[in-house]
Design a protein that fits this description.
Blueprint lengths: L1 H20 L4 H15 L8 H14 L5 H13 L2 H22 L7 H16 L1
Helix pairs in contact: 1-2, 1-6, 2-4, 3-4, 5-6
Length: 128
């Protein structure tokens, strides 16, 4: 319960920050990510899998294909979702991001709100 409250509260706050300012405050965001990862370790059978996702997307962030906050967020999502729901979250985030970029003619866009939307849609579908 506490982990879900911290997850959804932080996800909403940081997605709003990214949507309005195109930036996320790094220290609170990274502490939130580490806290969620540490909270998920006792319940996760594969504790190393979120780290693998984080490293893979951090390499993409290093070469400026996405922001570092996006890589951290994918690591958090990997600790919150299993493999198939995580892939659905990423697919939904990519599709909504492409729709957003083409409708507003933007070359750069905040991706955290799209990850939050994908997470919300996948969570609602899982509850149905």
């Amino acid at each position: 319960m506490l982990e879900n409250l911290i997850f959804w509260g932080g996800l909403a706050y940081f997605a709003f920050q990214d949507a309005t300012t195109h930036s996320v405050p790094s220290q609170p965001f990274e502490l939130w990510c580490v806290q969620l990862y540490l909270l998920s370790i006792p319940t996760a059978a594969l504790w190393w899998l979120p780290l693998l996702w984080w490293v893979a997307f951090s390499i993409l962030a290093h070469f400026n294909y996405l922001g570092s906050a996006d890589a951290w967020m994918i690591g958090v999502l990997a600790s919150h979702f299993t493999l198939m729901p995580l892939l659905w979250v990423l697919l939904i985030a990519c599709v909504t991001g492409l729709l957003h970029a083409t409708s507003f003619k933007q070359r750069q866009l905040p991706w955290l709100p799209h990850l939050a939307l994908g997470s919300l849609i996948v969570t609602i579908v899982q509850l149905i």
